[in-house]
Automatic annotation (TrEMBL), chains A, B:
PROSITE patterns: HTH_GNTR. The lineage of its organism: Bacteria, Bacillati, Bacillota, Bacilli, Bacillales. Keywords: Aminotransferase, DNA-binding, Pyridoxal phosphate, Transcription, Transcription regulation, Transferase. It comes from the Bacteria. Homodimer. Pfam families: Aminotran_1_2, GntR. Belongs to the class-I pyridoxal-phosphate-dependent aminotransferase family. In the C-terminal section; belongs to the class-I pyridoxal-phosphate-dependent aminotransferase family. It comes from Metabacillus litoralis. The keyword tRNA-binding does not apply. This is GntR family transcriptional regulator.
Length: 474, 474
């Protein structure tokens, strides 16, 4: 399989799943003819190309075959061996590659996506907002943004942060980036040369590990625990290895869900200042708390510019817009501006204006409240279904994931292979580990799949895992 | 002036110009009070923050002063010396910096912007399109794009290129990037290590020069002439310096407007294959022809993957969306995907869907036809006004710029200083020259400024230049 499997996003997946469900439920039997591409596109209210893509992948996966010029027919389960080969091939590859490979495998139960279920986002309301933006800024599509980002947006975010955290801030201290990924990437380019040492939590955000590795960084890790870090260990590493920076995600940490307590935050800033180690605080999940608001961001304890704060709004406000902001000292900002002007010369203005108006609306606050409740319910469903196992995890107070310890005999590689066969994906612990171990840990996201599928899928997953245990447990 | 001058885009500029015109025409006199921010925002139908920004810059430029808590008053021309100092400071800096510094200086006659006048773009129609996209894809804001880019869009572009140029192409051969800037940047990162040699035209696109310089490239130049290149020179440099790649803009070249003839294109591909030099063909102006369509892109002569083709649609279709596509061999695409997954993990899906639907519409074709006519008229106005001088240029058959040779005694640095004082900006030749010379050449864009301002501005510019000539000409 030399072509990477393309995932069109939820539309494509819906078509794929639609066909698979009919086949699995025997509504469509072996050799039955599938609806024509045109017909199904009309029925499902999607583009013909979306249906065609789903059909092609079904064929590739051996679920359907083609006869005549344009007819698709249901394939029998006789082809399961080929599926197995195909999927094994993908699984074998994903051990070496990015999380994105796992996410692209079309399964029914996406526990690998730390994304919000599109159905939980106020899509209809977005639509109205976008129309409003065009009324306010009729020439927005004809205009470029500055490299630093739309000033109106930066002013609005500045007011927000000042109100939330009572910090001193000015719109000039902010940079708008196309998502937190771009922010991390620009920072890695601005600060890291090959063999520079950086400190990472273990485990950590897989894309950040990839980014810093690609810059040639030497990654040293400190463990993150449910109650934060061992600050003596942090200090000792800063002293010994003199890392250029420490990349951290201290609030509803990805993948663990842990939150670093307030008393540690202040101390961390002091250590960072003392040992001249920049702190890059990635705070993507800040608003996704279940009971109480989390402690203030680490940057609010910073007085001299040691902390670079990345706040992404992609996950739960509008993934499709890709808007994040970086708050930092002016010298850092200058480097970042330089990098960004080369990288793309500024994020699209349209996206910034849409985000600006949505972000400052009352509706968004209401949306966030509902989202928190919905996510908490999903977390609880997942935990209920997992209670049947002897697996261990710390129940998070916010965020999108459970970080689960399986018994030592498990290999998450094999578990992934078997799971994908059962249309389930998750993230093996190694992908979150800078040291590439943690192979009996897994990350399960409860945020993407609806409640019914969540229950079904976790049960199915527990069964799959059960069959991989020593004989007496299957 | 430690803060970079921020340009909010055309809205901010309109407010700034509005006030300046009133002052210049003596409608508002010294010590007159300006309208309140709120009032002017209502009158001009812009955001208060936009007016506030314009007012702050007027104050910074010494055009107005502040009294009481929130009143702005007209400043007298007594402050002109300070303006001069401020502007000289900016001008001195721009010699060393990017084109973006020049573009950010708020002037009335922007001959430095190789952008389309927003008033020439079908803004109202865009608005309808965006609403339509939300109806077709209700969850578009809740969904991420793949790294390679929306498949529907790639399929649509593939059909377009196949129809236009009869090439073999597949949607898998395309990558969607956030503008051509990002494409060039990703390519520089994928292919260039410090001290690698690259071939450039002289002059060339200033941002590309900056990008490759930032990667540490050693830039060797070949001259571009109205009739193309000296292919013997090209061959001799490829043989001698073994450049990794040749970055070129062979159709309505920026800044010269020259177009490389068809017979040279085929030969160029042969040379590139022979000497194993990748060709990066940046084709941003392809559709902006005045009389005849230009020769087919160089990539259409390529059979083995020597050419990497960048087609940006930003300039004249929708700058605010920032959409470009790269067509290349699968091994190159693989590298680019890897780079892009780190850089931003995929361009925003919303922008791609909006572009997809607009691009495939009849309206866009009609728009392009009108745009060509409008730009040709503007080119002719500029040329008419310049006929009064003894300056030399080759009239381009398309594109957005005139590339003009001034008599040798001119220093474009000093000319820029004086011009900015007269509210005129342009691009000094050095910024387009990898060798940093060409100081008696200038680039004037006719695309951004309306016809009336074009005439006024060019006349004024000719006067300014006239006063810098030897005494007998002033």
């Amino acid at each position: 399989m030399s072509k990477a499997i393309q995932n069109e996003g939820y539309l494509f997946k819906q078509v794929y799943d639609y066909v698979m469900h009919r086949i699995e439920r025997k509504e469509w039997n072996e050799h039955d003819k599938l609806p024509s591409v045109r017909q199904l596109a009309a029925d499902m209210n999607v583009h013909r190309l979306t249906v065609l893509k789903a059909y092609k992948l079904l064929k590739q996966d051996g679920k359907v075959y083609v006869k005549d010029k344009s007819g698709y027919y249901v394939q029998t389960s006789m082809k399961e061996n080929n599926d197995f080969e195909n999927i094994q091939y993908v699984s074998a590859n994903v051990q070496k590659k990015h999380l994105s490979d796992i996410n692209q495998v079309p399964v029914s139960y996406h526990f690998s996506q730390a994304l919000i279920d599109p159905n939980l986002l106020p899509n209809h309301y977005f639509s109205d907002y976008v129309k409003k933006v065009f009324d306010l800024y009729p020439k927005v599509l004809a205009t470029y943004s500055t490299v630093q980002g739309d000033e109106e947006l930066r002013e609005s975010l500045t007011h927000y942060f000042i109100n939330q955290y009572k910090t001193h801030l000015h719109a000039d201290d902010l940079l708008i980036t196309s998502g937190s990924q771009q922010a991390i990437h620009l920072l890695s380019q601005a600060f890291i040369k090959p063999r520079d040492t950086v400190l990472f939590e273990r485990p950590s955000y897989s894309a950040a590990i990839d980014i810093f590795r690609a810059q040639g960084a030497n990654i040293i890790t400190v463990d993150i625990h449910p109650d934060g870090y061992d600050l003596e260990q942090v200090e000792s590493y800063m002293k010994r290895y003199k890392p250029r920076l420490f990349y951290l995600n201290p609030t509803f940490h990805n993948p663990t869900g842990y939150t670093v307590p307030a008393d540690q935050r202040k101390k961390l800033v002091e250590l960072a200042e003392q040992y001249r180690c920049l702190l890059i605080e990635d705070d993507a999940y800040h608003d996704i708390y279940f009971k109480e608001t989390p402690p203030p961001p680490i940057y609010t304890y910073d007085t001299v510019g040691t902390v670079i704060y990345i706040r992404s709004f992609c996950k739960y406000i509008s993934p499709g817009l890709r808007i994040a902001t970086v708050i930092c000292h002016s010298s850092v900002l200058k480097s970042l501006l330089s990098m960004k002007s080369l990288a793309d010369n500024g994020s699209p203005l349209l996206n910034q204006k849409i985000f600006l108006h949505y972000f400052s609306s009352l509706r968004m606050q209401q949306h966030l409240e509902k989202l928190r409740i919905a996510l908490q319910i999903r977390k609880e469903i997942m935990e209920e279904e997992l209670a049947a196992t002897n697996w261990q995890w710390t129940s998070p107070h916010g965020g999108l994931n459970l970080w689960i310890k399986l018994p030592d005999h498990f290999s998450s590689e094999l578990l992934l292979t078997k799971s994908i066969q059962q249309s389930i994906s998750f993230v093996p612990g190694q992908l979150c580990d800078p040291l590439n171990q943690l192979s009996s840990w897994i990350r399960l996201s409860y945020s993407y799949v609806n409640e019914k599928q969540l229950r079904e899928g976790v049960r199915r997953f527990v069964d799959v895992a059960g069959c991989l245990s020593p004989p007496e447990s299957c």
